[in-house]
Design goal:
With 407 residues, this protein is mainly beta. The protein has 5 helices and 24 strands. The strands form 2 sheets. It has a 22-stranded mixed beta sheet that branches.
Length: 407
Protein backbone atom coordinates (compact mmCIF):
# COMPACT_ATOMS: atom_id res chain seq x y z
CA UNK A 1 0.00 0.00 0.00
CA UNK A 2 2.86 2.37 0.77
CA UNK A 3 4.47 1.60 -2.60
CA UNK A 4 1.27 2.37 -4.50
CA UNK A 5 0.70 5.54 -2.50
CA UNK A 6 4.19 6.75 -3.37
CA UNK A 7 3.64 5.98 -7.05
CA UNK A 8 0.33 7.86 -7.11
CA UNK A 9 1.80 10.87 -5.34
CA UNK A 10 4.87 10.81 -7.56
CA UNK A 11 2.70 11.26 -10.63
CA UNK A 12 0.33 13.83 -9.15
CA UNK A 13 2.88 15.97 -7.34
CA UNK A 14 4.84 16.27 -10.58
CA UNK A 15 1.79 18.01 -12.12
CA UNK A 16 2.62 21.56 -11.06
CA UNK A 17 -0.63 22.92 -12.52
CA UNK A 18 -2.50 21.36 -9.59
CA UNK A 19 -2.69 24.28 -7.16
CA UNK A 20 -5.47 23.35 -4.72
CA UNK A 21 -4.60 21.01 -1.80
CA UNK A 22 -8.04 19.38 -1.83
CA UNK A 23 -7.63 18.55 -5.54
CA UNK A 24 -4.22 17.00 -4.89
CA UNK A 25 -5.59 14.92 -2.03
CA UNK A 26 -8.71 13.84 -3.92
CA UNK A 27 -6.80 12.84 -7.06
CA UNK A 28 -4.04 11.10 -5.10
CA UNK A 29 -6.42 9.09 -2.94
CA UNK A 30 -8.63 8.29 -5.93
CA UNK A 31 -5.69 6.90 -7.92
CA UNK A 32 -4.53 4.92 -4.92
CA UNK A 33 -8.03 3.55 -4.30
CA UNK A 34 -8.38 2.39 -7.92
CA UNK A 35 -5.07 0.56 -7.71
CA UNK A 36 -5.98 -1.17 -4.44
CA UNK A 37 -9.67 -1.85 -5.04
CA UNK A 38 -10.63 0.45 -2.15
CA UNK A 39 -12.67 3.59 -1.54
CA UNK A 40 -10.30 6.17 0.00
CA UNK A 41 -11.64 9.57 0.99
CA UNK A 42 -10.54 12.48 3.17
CA UNK A 43 -13.28 14.93 4.18
CA UNK A 44 -11.08 17.24 6.26
CA UNK A 45 -8.78 20.07 5.24
CA UNK A 46 -5.78 18.92 3.17
CA UNK A 47 -2.33 20.39 2.69
CA UNK A 48 0.55 19.79 0.33
CA UNK A 49 3.98 21.24 -0.34
CA UNK A 50 6.29 20.93 -3.35
CA UNK A 51 9.22 23.09 -2.26
CA UNK A 52 12.03 21.35 -0.44
CA UNK A 53 10.77 17.89 0.52
CA UNK A 54 7.31 17.26 -1.05
CA UNK A 55 4.66 16.66 1.58
CA UNK A 56 0.95 15.75 1.68
CA UNK A 57 -1.39 15.93 4.70
CA UNK A 58 -4.98 14.65 4.68
CA UNK A 59 -7.50 14.73 7.53
CA UNK A 60 -10.51 12.57 8.39
CA UNK A 61 -9.18 9.73 6.26
CA UNK A 62 -11.53 6.79 5.58
CA UNK A 63 -10.43 3.62 3.76
CA UNK A 64 -13.19 1.14 2.92
CA UNK A 65 -13.63 -1.90 0.70
CA UNK A 66 -16.51 -1.16 -1.72
CA UNK A 67 -19.76 -2.44 -0.23
CA UNK A 68 -18.25 -3.21 3.18
CA UNK A 69 -20.17 -2.15 6.27
CA UNK A 70 -17.12 -1.18 8.33
CA UNK A 71 -14.11 0.89 7.23
CA UNK A 72 -10.80 -0.90 6.98
CA UNK A 73 -8.87 2.11 8.26
CA UNK A 74 -9.70 5.58 9.54
CA UNK A 75 -7.39 8.33 10.78
CA UNK A 76 -7.84 11.88 12.00
CA UNK A 77 -4.66 12.89 10.21
CA UNK A 78 -2.21 11.25 7.80
CA UNK A 79 1.10 12.86 6.87
CA UNK A 80 3.49 11.74 4.13
CA UNK A 81 6.82 13.33 3.17
CA UNK A 82 9.13 12.00 0.44
CA UNK A 83 12.17 13.23 -1.51
CA UNK A 84 12.10 14.42 -5.12
CA UNK A 85 14.26 11.44 -6.09
CA UNK A 86 11.37 9.13 -5.25
CA UNK A 87 8.99 11.19 -7.37
CA UNK A 88 11.36 11.18 -10.33
CA UNK A 89 11.81 7.40 -10.00
CA UNK A 90 8.00 6.96 -10.33
CA UNK A 91 7.80 4.06 -7.87
CA UNK A 92 11.08 2.33 -8.75
CA UNK A 93 12.61 3.86 -5.61
CA UNK A 94 10.54 3.52 -2.42
CA UNK A 95 12.45 5.98 -0.26
CA UNK A 96 10.09 7.98 1.99
CA UNK A 97 11.10 10.67 4.42
CA UNK A 98 8.40 10.24 7.08
CA UNK A 99 4.89 8.90 7.72
CA UNK A 100 2.64 10.05 10.60
CA UNK A 101 -0.82 8.81 11.59
CA UNK A 102 -2.93 10.50 14.28
CA UNK A 103 -5.72 8.45 15.93
CA UNK A 104 -5.81 5.71 13.29
CA UNK A 105 -8.23 2.82 13.71
CA UNK A 106 -7.57 -0.48 11.95
CA UNK A 107 -10.24 -3.21 11.69
CA UNK A 108 -8.49 -6.57 11.35
CA UNK A 109 -11.60 -8.41 10.06
CA UNK A 110 -12.11 -5.82 7.32
CA UNK A 111 -8.40 -5.93 6.50
CA UNK A 112 -8.51 -9.75 6.18
CA UNK A 113 -11.62 -9.57 3.96
CA UNK A 114 -9.86 -7.13 1.62
CA UNK A 115 -6.63 -9.15 1.59
CA UNK A 116 -8.57 -12.24 0.51
CA UNK A 117 -9.61 -10.40 -2.67
CA UNK A 118 -6.08 -9.37 -3.66
CA UNK A 119 -3.87 -11.39 -6.00
CA UNK A 120 -0.60 -12.65 -4.54
CA UNK A 121 2.27 -10.26 -5.14
CA UNK A 122 5.82 -9.79 -3.99
CA UNK A 123 6.03 -7.41 -1.05
CA UNK A 124 8.44 -4.50 -1.21
CA UNK A 125 9.79 -2.91 1.93
CA UNK A 126 10.11 0.89 1.69
CA UNK A 127 12.92 2.95 3.19
CA UNK A 128 11.77 5.42 5.85
CA UNK A 129 14.67 7.78 6.49
CA UNK A 130 12.89 9.74 9.24
CA UNK A 131 10.68 6.94 10.45
CA UNK A 132 7.03 6.27 11.28
CA UNK A 133 4.91 7.72 14.08
CA UNK A 134 1.50 6.47 15.23
CA UNK A 135 -0.33 8.37 18.00
CA UNK A 136 -3.50 7.28 19.84
CA UNK A 137 -4.02 4.32 17.54
CA UNK A 138 -6.61 1.57 17.86
CA UNK A 139 -6.65 -1.97 16.46
CA UNK A 140 -9.96 -3.89 16.50
CA UNK A 141 -9.98 -7.69 16.57
CA UNK A 142 -12.73 -10.26 17.22
CA UNK A 143 -13.62 -9.81 20.90
CA UNK A 144 -10.56 -7.67 21.70
CA UNK A 145 -8.88 -4.40 20.85
CA UNK A 146 -5.63 -2.53 21.36
CA UNK A 147 -6.30 0.97 22.67
CA UNK A 148 -4.18 4.15 22.98
CA UNK A 149 -1.46 2.67 20.77
CA UNK A 150 1.64 4.84 20.38
CA UNK A 151 4.33 3.60 17.99
CA UNK A 152 7.69 5.20 17.26
CA UNK A 153 9.83 3.73 14.46
CA UNK A 154 12.96 5.88 14.05
CA UNK A 155 13.84 4.46 10.61
CA UNK A 156 13.23 1.53 8.29
CA UNK A 157 15.60 0.05 5.72
CA UNK A 158 15.26 -3.24 3.81
CA UNK A 159 17.54 -5.99 5.14
CA UNK A 160 18.65 -3.88 8.10
CA UNK A 161 17.80 -4.27 11.80
CA UNK A 162 14.68 -2.40 12.95
CA UNK A 163 14.03 -0.92 16.40
CA UNK A 164 10.74 0.46 17.70
CA UNK A 165 9.00 1.64 20.87
CA UNK A 166 5.34 0.82 21.37
CA UNK A 167 2.92 1.44 24.22
CA UNK A 168 -0.80 0.95 24.72
CA UNK A 169 -3.22 -1.48 26.31
CA UNK A 170 -4.88 -4.71 25.18
CA UNK A 171 -8.57 -4.90 26.15
CA UNK A 172 -10.49 -8.17 26.18
CA UNK A 173 -14.29 -8.23 25.73
CA UNK A 174 -16.88 -5.49 25.45
CA UNK A 175 -16.79 -4.79 29.19
CA UNK A 176 -12.99 -4.67 29.25
CA UNK A 177 -12.70 -7.00 32.26
CA UNK A 178 -9.24 -8.05 31.10
CA UNK A 179 -6.72 -5.29 30.39
CA UNK A 180 -3.05 -5.63 29.53
CA UNK A 181 -1.22 -2.26 29.49
CA UNK A 182 2.23 -2.50 27.92
CA UNK A 183 5.30 -0.36 27.28
CA UNK A 184 7.87 -2.24 25.21
CA UNK A 185 11.05 -1.70 23.24
CA UNK A 186 11.20 -4.15 20.31
CA UNK A 187 13.70 -5.03 17.60
CA UNK A 188 13.73 -7.11 14.39
CA UNK A 189 16.85 -8.46 12.75
CA UNK A 190 15.32 -7.33 9.42
CA UNK A 191 11.83 -6.36 8.09
CA UNK A 192 11.26 -9.74 6.41
CA UNK A 193 9.82 -13.18 7.10
CA UNK A 194 11.85 -15.51 9.32
CA UNK A 195 13.44 -12.51 11.04
CA UNK A 196 14.35 -12.67 14.71
CA UNK A 197 12.17 -10.65 17.09
CA UNK A 198 13.06 -9.45 20.57
CA UNK A 199 11.22 -7.21 23.02
CA UNK A 200 11.71 -6.07 26.60
CA UNK A 201 9.70 -3.82 28.90
CA UNK A 202 6.81 -3.57 31.33
CA UNK A 203 3.32 -5.02 31.05
CA UNK A 204 0.54 -6.09 33.38
CA UNK A 205 -2.59 -8.25 33.45
CA UNK A 206 -5.44 -6.44 35.20
CA UNK A 207 -8.92 -7.58 36.25
CA UNK A 208 -11.44 -5.95 38.62
CA UNK A 209 -10.20 -8.24 41.44
CA UNK A 210 -6.42 -8.57 40.95
CA UNK A 211 -3.39 -7.26 39.09
CA UNK A 212 -0.24 -8.93 37.79
CA UNK A 213 2.45 -6.33 36.90
CA UNK A 214 5.66 -7.71 35.43
CA UNK A 215 8.96 -6.91 33.78
CA UNK A 216 9.12 -9.14 30.73
CA UNK A 217 11.39 -10.25 27.93
CA UNK A 218 10.38 -12.20 24.82
CA UNK A 219 11.98 -13.50 21.64
CA UNK A 220 11.16 -15.64 18.63
CA UNK A 221 11.28 -15.90 14.86
CA UNK A 222 8.49 -14.16 12.92
CA UNK A 223 6.60 -15.69 9.99
CA UNK A 224 3.61 -14.31 8.07
CA UNK A 225 1.74 -16.36 5.48
CA UNK A 226 -1.54 -18.05 4.56
CA UNK A 227 -1.56 -19.75 7.97
CA UNK A 228 -1.58 -16.34 9.68
CA UNK A 229 0.99 -14.89 12.00
CA UNK A 230 3.48 -17.24 13.68
CA UNK A 231 6.23 -16.67 16.22
CA UNK A 232 8.29 -19.84 16.25
CA UNK A 233 10.69 -20.73 19.04
CA UNK A 234 8.79 -18.26 21.20
CA UNK A 235 10.30 -17.63 24.63
CA UNK A 236 8.79 -15.38 27.30
CA UNK A 237 10.27 -14.73 30.73
CA UNK A 238 9.05 -12.37 33.44
CA UNK A 239 9.45 -11.32 37.05
CA UNK A 240 5.94 -10.68 38.29
CA UNK A 241 3.91 -9.79 41.38
CA UNK A 242 0.37 -10.95 42.09
CA UNK A 243 -1.59 -8.15 43.82
CA UNK A 244 -5.03 -9.04 45.14
CA UNK A 245 -6.68 -7.68 48.27
CA UNK A 246 -3.86 -7.32 50.79
CA UNK A 247 -1.81 -10.13 49.26
CA UNK A 248 1.42 -9.54 47.35
CA UNK A 249 3.12 -12.63 45.89
CA UNK A 250 6.35 -12.18 43.91
CA UNK A 251 7.41 -14.95 41.52
CA UNK A 252 9.15 -15.61 38.20
CA UNK A 253 7.95 -17.70 35.28
CA UNK A 254 8.90 -18.65 31.76
CA UNK A 255 6.92 -19.79 28.71
CA UNK A 256 8.18 -21.44 25.54
CA UNK A 257 6.61 -22.92 22.41
CA UNK A 258 5.23 -21.90 19.02
CA UNK A 259 2.85 -18.92 19.10
CA UNK A 260 0.30 -18.46 16.31
CA UNK A 261 -2.59 -16.11 15.47
CA UNK A 262 -5.19 -16.72 12.78
CA UNK A 263 -8.84 -15.60 12.37
CA UNK A 264 -9.11 -14.32 15.94
CA UNK A 265 -7.56 -17.39 17.58
CA UNK A 266 -4.32 -17.09 19.54
CA UNK A 267 -2.61 -20.39 20.33
CA UNK A 268 0.59 -21.48 22.06
CA UNK A 269 1.14 -25.13 21.31
CA UNK A 270 3.16 -26.97 22.31
CA UNK A 271 3.60 -25.04 25.54
CA UNK A 272 6.28 -25.34 28.22
CA UNK A 273 5.85 -23.55 31.56
CA UNK A 274 8.34 -23.08 34.41
CA UNK A 275 7.17 -21.36 37.61
CA UNK A 276 9.47 -20.35 40.45
CA UNK A 277 8.17 -18.76 43.61
CA UNK A 278 8.27 -18.68 47.39
CA UNK A 279 5.66 -18.99 50.10
CA UNK A 280 2.26 -19.71 48.57
CA UNK A 281 3.65 -19.82 45.02
CA UNK A 282 4.81 -23.35 44.15
CA UNK A 283 7.76 -24.45 42.07
CA UNK A 284 6.52 -26.41 39.08
CA UNK A 285 7.38 -27.52 35.56
CA UNK A 286 4.65 -28.34 33.07
CA UNK A 287 3.91 -29.00 29.42
CA UNK A 288 0.66 -28.58 27.50
CA UNK A 289 -1.17 -26.16 25.25
CA UNK A 290 -3.05 -22.85 25.40
CA UNK A 291 -5.65 -21.22 23.13
CA UNK A 292 -7.61 -17.98 23.32
CA UNK A 293 -10.55 -17.18 21.03
CA UNK A 294 -14.18 -16.76 22.16
CA UNK A 295 -13.10 -18.65 25.29
CA UNK A 296 -9.81 -19.59 26.92
CA UNK A 297 -8.56 -23.17 26.93
CA UNK A 298 -5.57 -24.39 28.95
CA UNK A 299 -4.23 -27.89 29.46
CA UNK A 300 -1.12 -28.60 31.55
CA UNK A 301 0.61 -31.69 32.86
CA UNK A 302 3.74 -31.65 35.00
CA UNK A 303 5.12 -31.92 38.51
CA UNK A 304 5.25 -29.86 41.69
CA UNK A 305 8.86 -30.06 42.87
CA UNK A 306 7.64 -30.21 46.48
CA UNK A 307 4.60 -29.39 48.58
CA UNK A 308 4.96 -25.69 49.57
CA UNK A 309 5.46 -25.14 53.29
CA UNK A 310 2.99 -22.23 53.23
CA UNK A 311 0.20 -24.55 52.03
CA UNK A 312 -1.88 -26.50 54.60
CA UNK A 313 0.25 -29.33 56.00
CA UNK A 314 -0.51 -32.82 54.78
CA UNK A 315 -1.05 -35.51 57.44
CA UNK A 316 1.39 -38.45 57.66
CA UNK A 317 2.47 -40.34 55.71
CA UNK A 318 1.62 -37.91 52.87
CA UNK A 319 3.50 -35.01 54.49
CA UNK A 320 6.56 -37.15 55.16
CA UNK A 321 7.21 -37.91 51.51
CA UNK A 322 9.66 -35.72 49.59
CA UNK A 323 8.65 -37.13 46.23
CA UNK A 324 7.53 -34.68 43.51
CA UNK A 325 3.79 -34.34 43.00
CA UNK A 326 2.60 -35.05 39.43
CA UNK A 327 -0.43 -33.02 38.37
CA UNK A 328 -2.78 -32.40 35.47
CA UNK A 329 -4.77 -29.18 35.10
CA UNK A 330 -7.46 -28.22 32.61
CA UNK A 331 -9.51 -25.06 32.09
CA UNK A 332 -12.00 -23.81 29.52
CA UNK A 333 -14.04 -20.68 30.11
CA UNK A 334 -13.89 -16.91 30.28
CA UNK A 335 -10.49 -15.30 29.82
CA UNK A 336 -10.55 -13.87 33.38
CA UNK A 337 -10.18 -17.46 34.70
CA UNK A 338 -13.50 -17.24 36.55
CA UNK A 339 -14.69 -20.57 35.11
CA UNK A 340 -14.16 -24.07 36.48
CA UNK A 341 -10.62 -25.45 36.65
CA UNK A 342 -10.10 -29.21 36.87
CA UNK A 343 -7.15 -30.59 38.83
CA UNK A 344 -5.62 -34.05 39.23
CA UNK A 345 -2.85 -34.68 41.79
CA UNK A 346 -1.07 -37.91 42.56
CA UNK A 347 1.74 -38.76 44.99
CA UNK A 348 2.68 -42.43 45.05
CA UNK A 349 -0.59 -44.33 45.73
CA UNK A 350 -2.53 -41.22 46.87
CA UNK A 351 -4.77 -39.54 44.31
CA UNK A 352 -6.91 -36.41 44.26
CA UNK A 353 -9.40 -35.33 41.57
CA UNK A 354 -11.17 -32.01 42.00
CA UNK A 355 -12.42 -28.76 40.56
CA UNK A 356 -12.35 -25.16 41.74
CA UNK A 357 -12.85 -21.54 40.73
CA UNK A 358 -9.63 -19.54 40.79
CA UNK A 359 -11.13 -16.27 42.18
CA UNK A 360 -12.42 -18.22 45.22
CA UNK A 361 -9.04 -19.87 45.78
CA UNK A 362 -7.23 -16.52 45.54
CA UNK A 363 -9.66 -15.01 48.06
CA UNK A 364 -9.01 -17.99 50.38
CA UNK A 365 -5.25 -17.49 50.01
CA UNK A 366 -5.63 -13.80 50.96
CA UNK A 367 -7.44 -14.73 54.19
CA UNK A 368 -5.90 -18.14 54.91
CA UNK A 369 -4.47 -17.12 58.29
CA UNK A 370 -7.96 -16.20 59.54
CA UNK A 371 -10.24 -18.57 57.64
CA UNK A 372 -10.65 -22.30 57.10
CA UNK A 373 -7.52 -24.42 56.43
CA UNK A 374 -9.39 -26.22 53.63
CA UNK A 375 -9.35 -24.57 50.19
CA UNK A 376 -12.70 -23.86 48.49
CA UNK A 377 -12.91 -26.76 46.06
CA UNK A 378 -14.91 -29.89 45.23
CA UNK A 379 -13.19 -33.21 44.85
CA UNK A 380 -12.30 -36.69 46.05
CA UNK A 381 -9.15 -37.92 47.77
CA UNK A 382 -8.17 -41.60 47.83
CA UNK A 383 -5.21 -42.83 49.88
CA UNK A 384 -4.28 -46.30 51.22
CA UNK A 385 -3.14 -44.99 54.62
CA UNK A 386 -3.62 -41.85 56.71
CA UNK A 387 -2.53 -40.92 60.24
CA UNK A 388 -4.63 -38.40 62.17
CA UNK A 389 -4.18 -37.62 65.91
CA UNK A 390 -2.46 -40.93 66.56
CA UNK A 391 -5.08 -42.99 64.72
CA UNK A 392 -4.16 -44.98 61.60
CA UNK A 393 -6.82 -45.09 58.91
CA UNK A 394 -6.57 -47.46 55.95
CA UNK A 395 -8.39 -47.39 52.61
CA UNK A 396 -9.39 -43.77 53.14
CA UNK A 397 -11.72 -41.92 50.78
CA UNK A 398 -12.50 -38.24 51.46
CA UNK A 399 -15.02 -36.10 49.58
CA UNK A 400 -14.76 -32.31 49.65
CA UNK A 401 -17.83 -30.24 48.90
CA UNK A 402 -17.39 -26.48 48.73
CA UNK A 403 -21.13 -25.99 48.82
CA UNK A 404 -22.96 -22.72 48.10
CA UNK A 405 -21.16 -19.47 48.70
CA UNK A 406 -21.60 -17.92 52.14
CA UNK A 407 -23.99 -14.91 52.37
Amino acid sequence: MIALLVLALAVLLSLRWVSRPDQVARLSLGRLGQALGLEITASGTSQYRLRGAPMLVVRDLVVRQPGAAAPLLTAQRAYLSLPWSTIRARGADLTITRIELDAPQLDLAALQAWQDTRPPSEARVPTLTDGLQVLRGRVIGPGWSIEALDLQLPSLHPQRPVAAHLAGRYVRGDEGRIRVPFDLHAALTAPESAAGLGAVGALAVETPDWRLPMQARLSGRVYRGDAGFRLERFEFGARARYLGGEAELPFAFGLAGDLGYRDGRLALEPLALDLRGQGLVPRLDARGRFALADAMALQLGGTLARWPEAWPSLPPPLGQSAAPVPFELGYRGDSDLSGTTFLHLQREATRFDGRFHLPEVLEWMDAMTMGTPLPPLDGRLNTPRLEIAGAVLEGVEVELDNGPAAP
